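Dear U.,

Please find below the material for section 3 of the report. The protein was modelled together with zinc ion; I have listed the sequence and SMILES used, followed by the predicted complex structure.
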Amino acid sequence: MANSMVVFHGTEAEGLFLIDAIAHNCTCAYDMTGQRTSSCPAHDALLHEQRFIDGLLVSRRRRDELNHQEHDRFDSCGIWVQG
Ligand SMILES: [Zn+2]
């Protein structure tokens, strides 16, 4: 929903990853004094798109689950070891 406050429901670490990813992909425009003159789509979404932020969080957690599952294995004694 546009023009409403976005609430991030992730952990502090997830928030730091999100901030880093947004900064890495930021295409905002700034004037000579450092004032932002236009916002990039990533920053607009961060500020105005709750569904987008929630979707990123769900996707990131799902990715982490899949990574852990991929690294789960049986050890040399036949015991299941979670990644
Ligand atoms: Zn930006």
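For the text of the report, you could mention the following: The radius of gyration is 18 Å.

Regards,
Y.
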